[in-house]
Amino acid sequence: MSSVHTAADVVRVLEAWAPPRLAMPGDPVGLQLGRLDKPVETVWLALDTSLPVVQEAVAAGADMLVTHHELFYRPLPKLDTTTIKGRTIAEALAHDLTIYAAHTNLDVAEGGVNDVLAAKLGLTDVDILDRLQDDRLRKLVVFVPESHHEQVLQAVCAAGAGHIGRYSHCTFNTPGEGTFLPLPGTQPFLGQVGQLERAAEVRLETVVPESRLEAVVRAMLAAHPYEEVAYDVYPLEIMGKAYGIGRIGNLEKPLPLQEFAAQVRDALGLSHIRFGGEPDKRVQRVAVLGGSGGKWAAAALAKGADVFVTSDCDHHTVADAWLDGLAIIDATHAALERPVLEAMRQQLTDRLPGLSVRISEVREDPFTWL
């Protein structure tokens, strides 16, 4: 059965999972090429917008390519179609291929690159390695007639309100009496035009993450029976959900560094791996960061990590960490990030029935080991 989805539908699912606001400063996530109103039946997933990936997607009849790394991560001063980058862009444009990228927002997002990596390595009690931002909280107060109290409560909570820690549907409800006088031209749910009405109402209050406020208010207004809804939104000076880069957790039991490095190698499907540290050092607390994570070595050490799994580390980073007592396992950039593509495929197929989502089979790791 043909899909009736558009590129905008695909983006809506991806941005609900990995909102662009989570991206690191200056990271140009989002639409890279093409148009969002394009009908989409097949989505191709890859780490990079390389010429072989674009050719593979085009040959398979894909309508949209979603990548982790941006096509335009660095400014392009000119479009020279004799270069590999220019040929890639020309090929995509010639076949009307829409291209979208979720980069550091997908690194930070819950269930994104680093959570997938932590799960793949068997970590438990997982926490954020470096907290970057918080989703500030708001207090929503709305006055609801008793007859629709439960309906509005369920609607706002389903839209994202009422979460405190691991509890959902956290609200406070106070009965009272509301008054209003419908003026000419109104169509009141209760009462008569020109007559003062006294209604049994409930003051419903709950907390809402700032990022969900618009959706929660829309849900509240849709569920509320009144023509004009009385509600208030207050700022709160308390931190909401934390978001950050990297993860840190624990192995089920301590292992020699060399044995754990071998486990990382096998879990990522690599033939070889390198590590810095004493091979027989016992490790249990593990920090992970998909991609280039060398500059977070100090954060891993500060969080009590015995070993840090990341990529693209230079000599001095590894040497200094070794002297500080932090072992570093340096896998390849692609090997650490590629597992998230399956999670991305799952997100899209679960939320967009009928959409065909395929992961590129093009080799994307530029390194070959002897």
Which structural class best describes the helix and strand composition? alpha/beta
Listing every helix as H and every strand as E from the N terminus to the C terminus, the arrangement reads HEEHEHEHHEEHEEHEEHEEHEHEHHE
Q: What does the average pLDDT come to?
A: 96
**What level of helicity do the residues show?**
25-40%
Shape: globular
The quaternary organization reads as: single chain
Distance between the termini: 47 Å
Largest sheet: 6 strands, mixed
- Residue share in β-strands: 25-35%
**Rounded radius of gyration (Å):** 26 Å
The number of helical segments is 12
Low-confidence stretches: none
User: Would you report the number of β strands?
Assistant: 15
Strand order of the largest sheet: 5-10-12-13-14-11
A few lines on this structure:
With 370 residues, the protein is of the alpha/beta class. It has twelve helices and 15 strands.
Describe the protein's topology.
Layout: H1 7-17, E1 30-33, E2 42-46, H2 51-59, E3 64-67, H3 84-94, E4 98-101, H4 104-108, H5 113-120, E5 124-135, E6 137-145, H6 149-158, E7 171-180, E8 197-209, H7 213-223, E9 231-235, E10 241-256, H8 257-267, E11 274-276, E12 282-292, H9 297-302, E13 307-311, H10 315-324, E14 327-331, H11 333-337, H12 340-351, E15 356-359
Helix pairs in contact: 1-12, 2-3, 6-7
